[in-house]
Amino acid sequence: MLAVLNEAEAELDHGPRITRAAPLRRCALTRAELPISAMLRFVVGPDGAVVPDVKKKLPGRGLWLSATRDAVETARRKGVFARGFKREVRVPDTLAFDVAALLEQAALDALAMAGKAGEIVCGFTKVEKTLAERRALALIHASDAAPDGARKLAQIARASGDSGLNSGPDSGLGLPLVDVFSGPQLDLALGRSNVVHAAVLAGPAGQSFLARCNRLADFCARPGPQRAEPSAKTRTTQLDATGSEQD
Question: Among 45, 66, 93, which residue terminates a domain?
């Protein structure tokens, strides 16, 4: 096990320590030690501006925060970035929005990869058949889809029984539901027109897409009673404006 570094370094890239399970980093805001999968990394760009590094690959010393919108906003207001980097930095007022947009794009990129891997089924009829065969890992509905089609697929899912692949609370059908992306976003990611309903099949690419959706949902969730959406992870919720894991 690596020795704990001094307080000035503990919240940066080298600390505080590595466990057998996962590398840990210290949140510069809360001082909590968390796995890097639950954190966001930030670096300072050539112009002195703080830059989110959602893929954790950008060069330079990194400062780490808990991966929530509230943590990023609070750190920006309280001057955490300047203290952590030990220098004057420029923190954009839109930093939390910028992170959300990057996480959203990362999820859409993963959806494109899942589509190329053959792990996405599109179209009402094909999704209906996939549900009946109990092969769906999750459902995707365009955020601007008419509710009637979603209701019909819900009925089919219930009639065919639990898929056996669910991962907790969700859309009420025993399947995780992703409904944050618009039809045009789905069209662009999947390289086809008029994507309204889709199903995610089991496989590494599909799992990666859902993991990135989870990360987006966790970041955008509001704390306490303001959180109106279900606590289910894989159900992503609409961003406040527009919005987007690690490769």
Answer: 93
